[in-house]
Write a structure and sequence with these properties.
single chain; mainly alpha; transmembrane helix; Oxaloacetate decarboxylase beta chain; translocase; lyase activity; membrane
Length: about 375
């Protein structure tokens, strides 16, 4: 009997706490949404499964020498995982639409207003003294970067400023990226008229191979000299893109955008999931992070649309304001949403390639915003 009792006391069921059971259910919900609804399955499935593993009592996979803790130590404090993902994204990215219409850089920049607006909002909430909703400057900066709708950038910044908030911030960032088709369209329709949504843009000019090769080199040097804190993100993004456009290292480009990014995505997802422990996630501060993240994302969407409307006041060739929403950086989903909403108003109006300009600019903008936050707050 004593041995049976010891066996029972050693089971996870005996040690299972209500919070851990709840977090397991939440993680299973993430997996369900990924499989049944198609919400960012490449990340939500490993994140959800990592969260389940992290909440299994006694197993200790997310602490000490556990496998998830080892993944964390290798990839996040060192920033290896998000930087390798940025390299892979760069190898999949075509800068052509942005180079063909450089004005879209302004749309990507305007969409970053959500980041800095949320930073001030988090500090304002702290000043109000709401119990359980106090944020330090470093925590506020980590929450604000959710507005860039860029998961690797959010993880990169949070791992440096507030690593204890990595779980809720990563889940918020990737959840809002996955929910782009639900969150953005109402904001886009509310801020535009039917006539604006029907604007047909001119066909983009052809961008030469030389331009595509020169751009990542110039981008790296320019950002590196002006804002060194953003150089790691922008540099890896530009390097991946150079592999794509050079035309002589297809094997490296293929590895970066396929095998390597897939391996890192698995490790990153499991690592982020390991931070979804009950004690770290089930508190008022986490709810505040989720709410502020939604505000940041919505403000970024609105900022891009409003900038396009403002530019139209002075531009001879009108911009369809819908493409401004793609400046939030969720590549390429935000561009697809811009195209979808445009087709609803005019079935002959294809905005996808036009929207890819601000979409790519948003990736650069979020990386630059991350560098600014790290420079001012670290």
């Amino acid at each position: 009997m004593e041995k049976l009792l010891n066996l029972w006391h050693g089971t996870g069921i005996y040690h299972l706490e209500p919070g851990q059971a709840l977090m397991m259910a939440v993680c299973m919900l993430l997996i369900y949404l990924a499989i049944k609804k198609g919400f960012e399955p490449l990340l939500l499935i490993p994140i959800g499964f990592g969260g389940i593993l992290a909440n299994i009592p006694v197993a200790n996979m997310a602490v000490g020498g556990g496998i998830l803790h080892l993944f964390y130590e290798v990839g996040l404090p060192t920033s290896v995982f998000p930087l390798l993902i940025f390299m892979g994204v760069g190898a999949m990215t075509d800068f052509g639409p942005m180079l063909a219409n450089p004005k879209t850089l302004l749309l990507g920049a305007a969409a970053q207003i959500g980041i800095f607006g949320t930073l001030l909002g988090a500090l304002a909430i702290t000043a109000m003294g709401i119990p359980g909703m106090e944020f330090t400057m470093r925590e506020a900066g980590s929450i604000a970067i959710i507005g860039g709708a860029d998961g690797p950038t959010s993880i990169f910044v949070t791992s440096k400023l507030a690593p204890h908030l990595l779980g809720p911030i990563a889940v918020a960032a990737y959840s809002y990226m996955a929910l782009v088709p639900l969150i953005q369209p109402p904001i886009m329709r509310w801020l535009t008229t039917k006539e604006e949504r029907c604007i047909v843009m001119e066909q983009l000019r052809h961008v030469s191979q030389a331009e595509k090769i020169i751009f990542p080199l110039v981008l790296t040097v320019l950002i590196g000299l002006l804002l060194p804190d953003a150089a790691p993100l922008v540099g890896m993004f530009a390097f991946g893109n150079l592999l794509r456009e050079a035309g002589v290292v297809e094997r490296l480009a293929d590895t970066s955008r396929n095998a390597l990014i897939n391996i890192v995505t698995i490790c990153l997802g499991l690592t982020v999931g390991s931070k979804l422990s009950a004690e770290a996630f089930l508190n008022l501060k986490t709810l505040g992070i989720l709410a502020l993240g939604m505000v940041a994302f919505s403000a970024g969407t609105a900022g891009g649309v409003l900038m396009a409307k403002f530019m139209n006041l002075f531009s001879k060739h009108k911009i369809n304001p819908l493409i401004g929403s793609a400046g939030v950086s969720a590549v390429p989903m935000a561009a697809r949403v811009s195209n979808k909403v445009g087709l609803e108003s005019n079935p002959q109006n294809f905005l996808l390639m036009h929207a890819m300009g601000p979409n790519v600019a948003g990736v650069i903008g979020s990386a630059v915003a991350a560098g600014i936050l790290l420079n001012f707050i670290s």
